[in-house]
Amino acid sequence: YHPVLENIISSITFDQSENPSSLEIDTIKFDTYYSDFPSFNIKYPTEWVTDDKGQAADVIFSAVAGVNPSSVQVSHEFLTTNLSLDKYTSKSVTALRNALPNFKLISNTEDVLFGVDATRLVYTTTEDKKTFKIMQIFSIFGDTAYVVTYIANNENYATDLQIAQRMINSFEITGTSTLINGHYSDNISGL
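^ that's the sequence the OP posted. Answer follows.
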C-alpha cells in the first residue's frame, strides 16, 4: 500500500469530451447526386454548390464559404487498353508532373473506392502564388477509371478534409451494365 500512488491514481481524470470537428460534421446535411452517364451516386453537403455543366469533370461540388473554397470533383476516363492500377497510377503521376506548376507529390498510398482497390495521391501545386493541396483517389472499374479529387487551399486543407472523405466514402457505381459489387462505407455516419 502506497499512499502517494493512491493519491496519484485518484487524481487522474479522463477527458470525456468529443472532438469538436467530429460533432460539426455530424450536423451537416447531405444530399445525393445522381449521374446517369457515367452511372454513379455520391453524397455531398446540401450547402455546397453543384456544377455538372463544365468540361473539367463530370461534376464539381464547391463549398460556398471562404476565399478559394474547397471542392470535390468526380471524373472518369474510358480506357482504350487494359491497364493495371499500378500502371494507371504511374501514368497519372507523370501527367501531373508535366501539367502542374511546382508539382510536389506528398504521398502515394493504397486505398479503397467502392470496395475496389484504389490509389490515393496527395500532392501540392502552386498557381498564381497560391499553393493548393490536392487529394485524388482513383480506381479502375472494367474499362473505366473513376477519379475523385479534393482540392483546397494549402492552409485550409484540413478544414474540409472530413467532408471530402465522407463524400469519397459515399461514392457508388450504379447501372445495370456494371458488374461490381461492394461499397466502402463510413461507419460513423453510414454514408
